[in-house]
Specification:
Helices cover 93% and strands 0% of the residues. The N and C termini lie far apart (82 Å). It is mainly α and 58 residues long. It comes from Geomesophilobacter sediminis.
Length: 58
């Protein structure tokens, strides 16, 4: 392999590592958003249950 081949290979490895880092960051953001949405869903469900129980009493 020539020096050019090693340089090209190194460039590809660096690009892959950068892409991996970006994907890990995006994954962290999506996990946090998912957690937040689950909490929001839980709150909405609680409110709906409360409204339904009030309607049952009518």
């Amino acid at each position: 392999m020539s020096v050019d081949s090693f340089d090209e290979l190194e460039g590809r490895v660096v690009a892959l590592l950068e892409a991996l880092s970006q994907l890990k960051g995006e994954n962290d953001l999506l996990r946090e958003e998912n957690r937040r949405l689950k909490e929001e869903k839980k709150g909405v469900r609680t409110r709906i249950d409360s409204i339904l129980s009030k309607l049952e009493g009518v």
